[in-house]
Amino acid sequence: MQNTSTDYNYLILGAGLSGLMLAQALVSDPYFKDKRILLLDKSEKKNNDRTWCFWSENTRDWDAVISKKWERIAFKGENFSAEIPLESYSYNKIEGIDFYESVFRKLRAAKQLTFKTEAFQSLTETPEYVEVTTSAATYTAGKVFSSILPPERLKNQTKYPVLQQHFIGWEVRTQEPVFDPEVATFMDFTIPQRGNTRFIYVLPTAPNKALVEYTLFSEHLLPDEEYEAAIEEYMEALGASQYELVSTEKGSIPMTAYPFEKHNTRRLLHIGTAGGWTRGSTGYTFTYTLKRTVELVAFLKKETNLNTFKIADRYRWYDKLLLDVLYRKNELGASLFTQMFQKNEISKIFRFLDGTSSLKDDLQIIWSLPKKEFIRSFFGLK
Fold it and tell me: InterPro entries this protein is in (predicted)?
């Protein structure tokens, strides 16, 4: 028999990046000190299950959990390669376990929050509350924030193109010093493209240690063996005769301009990837989630219906154009990103990807990209 708990003000489904950022923001703001908050996840979040990277001009709030910073990145394309100083920015790496431990220390000290490890099963919304059923109990809350993306949500629509940013990463330790720990390889498109957008991403932490990822922006995933073979080929080309596999990671992030917020209701709001908090054209999540969390916390103080929280900016329109080009002509990704990095200052690119650029900067970046296919996408030509 299930137990029933009632009268939570806020219930957060999922203790991933968006759920933990939201929980931390709520318990850190005196406005919410009297709110009862329930955080649910099927996992205790005690494994180092992923890595987040982001660029920033000010990392003060995250320095305690940043494991490595780079002030230079490498970009490699067929006709353009460069080692790029990041000017006022740094490129930063956070290990999942460090982020989890830091946030949970703050959450455990917050009397208004309860964390439970239970698997979500279903929810039902009524005019007065939302009822959430898990593997162990049923809870009710005035407002629910869900980071759970039902797989059928994107599969059952055809209006918005959906690509995947999919990858397998190996953290390796080599015998030879084949890496420069001061330079992160942001995108290396010199590998075979095979009709897709494919690149190698390298985060070196020592001359003989790095995370090496084989990444695609494409519609369909590959067999694991194909990612792994590509990493092996890359390591051989670097001159690493022998290396130890320290750890692995694997992921797939949907890239789309789909309006996820249309599924929000009066008492239910989707967050994270399920809420459109991932930048559709790149799959970058960390800074976009931080930005949306700040906006959401300010919105909650208005005590109004959740379905009035909107994500309305011109960057979704840019994403829609870019994704349409890559969906129709996936092989153009290498030349598209090469021209972006070749013809624009890195600070301007970062502002554009962060959604903080000026309209003038946006137009300059868009104009630097292959024009023919963008014009076709603009006018809806197929």
Answer: FAD/NAD-bd_sf (IPR036188)
